[in-house]
Amino acid sequence: MKTPGSLFLTGPMGAGKSTIGRQLAKQLGLPFLDSDHEIESRTGVDIPLIFELEGESGFRKREAAVIDELTRLPNILLATGGGAILDPVNREHLKTRGKVIYLHASVNQQLKRTQKDRHRPLLQIDDPHSKLEELMTVRDPLYREIADLVIETDGMRVRDVVNKIMRRLA
How many CB atoms lie within 10 A of CB 27? Predict the structure, then answer.
């Protein structure tokens, strides 16, 4: 398969963007980047601390700068944070600089995959299920707006999702 150019994975937390992204990048021979990990690497602190110190708006400013920079790189596979698509400029950069793959996961699947993860600032509340539903209501149309491919991930193994994407890219 010839290199597809840059690929950008979007989707909610718990959809598997990082895990699937690493495997897909290996299959395609592309370097794998993760915008959240890049922010942590550059700041020297984890995302929950950035949220605590700067609030969500401070984090989103950092995220926009990183996405602008990373989406300019040729032939990469980038996993974005779940809320990256909230910014219209981020959506434009993702849509115009590569192929966007939306990894869709139901709210129940997201909850199952994230319930023990303490590094998800938006879910450190009494009712994470309601929060995930609220986020999905707002974000799902935005993910779909820029997606070149929509891949359902519920109940699927990583290898099967990667194979499904490879077939759709061929």
Answer: 16
CA pair distance 130, 1, nearest whole angstrom: 42
3-state secondary structure of 33: strand
3-class secondary structure for 149-161?
A: EEEECCCCCHHHH
> What order do you get walking across the sheet with 149-152 strand by strand?
32-34, 77-79, 7-10, 99-104, 149-152
Domains and CATH numbers, the chain: 7-169 (3.40.50.300)
CA atoms within 13 A on the CB side of 33: 20
Rounded Cα distance between 130 and 133, Å, is 5
CA–CA gap between residue 126 and residue 163 (Å, rounded): 37
The tens digit of pLDDT for each residue in 56-90 reads: 899 999 999 999 999 999 999 999 999 999 999 99
pLDDT tens for 21-45 read: 999 999 999 999 999 999 999 999 9
pLDDT of residue 20: 97
Picking from 12, 28, 14, the residue whose alpha carbon sits closest to that of residue 155 is 14
